[in-house]
Design a protein that fits this description.
With about 500 residues, the protein is α/β, with parallel strands linked by helices. The protein has two domains: about 160 residues, Leucine Aminopeptidase, subunit E, domain 1, CATH 3.40.220; about 325 residues, Zn peptidases (Aminopeptidase), CATH 3.40.630. It is built from 15 helices and 17 strands. The strands form three sheets. It has an eight-stranded mixed sheet with strand order 7-8-10-9-13-17-14-15, with helices on both faces. Helix 9 links the parallel strand 9 and strand 10. Helix 5 packs antiparallel against helix 9 and helix 12 packs across helix 15. Bound molecules: ligand BES, manganese (II) ion (MN) and zinc ion. Manganese (II) ion binds next to loops.
Length: about 500
Amino acid sequence: MSEALEIQFASLSAAPTGTLVLLAGAELALAATARGLDERTKGAVSKAARAADFTGKAKTSIEILAPIGIDASRLLVIGAGHPSKELDRLLLGGYVLSQITARKGEAASLIADVPDTGEAGADVLAADLAFGALLRSYAFKKYRTTRKAEDGGEDEPRDGVRRLTVHCAKPDAAAKAFASRKALAQGIFLARDLVNEPANMLGPVEFAERVRDLASAGVEVEVLDEDQLRALKMGALLAVGQGSDRPSRVVVMQWHGAKSKRAKTLAFVGKGVCFDTGGISMKPAGGMEDMKGDMGGAACVVGLMLALAGRKAAVNAVGLVGLVENMPSGKAQRPGDIVTSMSGQTVEVLNTDAEGRLVLADVLWYAQQRFKPRFVIDLATLTGAIIVALGKEHAGLFSNDDRLAGELIAAGEATGEKVWRMPLGKAYDKLIDSKNADMKNIGGRHAGSITAAQFVQRFIKDTPWAHLDVAGTAMDSARNEINPSWASGWGVRLLDRLICDHYEKGDK
Ligand code: BES
Ligand code: MN
Ligand code: ZN
């Protein structure tokens, strides 16, 4: 996060620097500080608002240049609407940053004072706005050398703004509330970075090395190499990676934050296909570059573990990622091959492009066997069919546990990282029965996301389990005020919220 936006908190009376940003609630409701500034500028704010028909609606703004009576060269008045929900405050913070970055200047001051903030006090409002602004400030520009970073682009901020001071009634409390949000942002940025990174730079080995860095945050990291994976009999995962010159890896990350010794661990498993060519069942050329993001599930798990450690979450959690590259070669697996998974179940590989489920099969089995978790949630860019079904609005949710599913749906509503529950059942499960082995790795033409989930479920014992098909949300997803990049970091906020709402309080 070296290049990221620097955020600090100050009192309402502290002198602002650079662009000064005011918030106006719906129907031009101005909080006390904004009213004071309106007076000091001899009514410039209200006059300009009238002239521009500005009413304080969310995602609208007006700009007053060289206002008299105050020290700022530019006054931005931004519509806040009714930011009574947390997500609205985050989106507002993101919009504020986009308005600042669209203009000149290295520093900006935001007066975090607006009516109608629901339950949120001054500190939470300020921290949420700052968090939204920070999420918006992300850009992946490390490989741009001659095209100046300041150029920006339609979907990315310029590098103009470096410092944002958030002025509020309780700056110390706000800074404290912001600390955990900043840790979460670091996890999200890591997830985004991993997904944005091209596959020539990030294969399974390099990915595993990046995860090792989590040790400095207090996460216990173990990297399993191919000899160890063979010893564990992970035949399904290894079959996917065997066509690549780059060896496969499984990485295990443990965070021990629970106060109680008896707390069962929560397990998160991610599909980490660093590049998915489809293998011998090769994908068409058009758009194949997107398959550098086929490790979006794994990236989310890594980002989550960093966030949990960063905010010292009172929970025990383990993250496991299966890292492979799916390539065609003389060593690659063929359609018709039969592989034996760690569970002992055999799989007839009818399509080498249905590889993610093979990876999940072994890592999920290992996760349950070793950790006996309270639940296991897997995330995977598993099927194009989930994009056909749900577009980019929702990730597909499949679960054997109504309570866990309900908790995820609620966390999705709260964070805006929404999930939509899809069915599972015997009739779908039958579609992956195979004549030659215990199962085949594809169903028929119908219900592709569901047969993929059924396949995954065959590797779940009696653990509460949820599978999130994030093919539509982890990459190239719907951009919004807080999600400016091709790689969204989707799922880190969702799972962090799930944990903090249900699995931390009292170490249940
Ligand atoms: N990684 C893909 C799924 C995918 C597609 C992710 C588009 C993101 C965007 C997965 O490995 C895959 O190729 N799935 C196949 C399954 C089929 C062969 C049964 C698919 O969706 O076509
Ligand atoms: Mn594939
Ligand atoms: Zn894939």
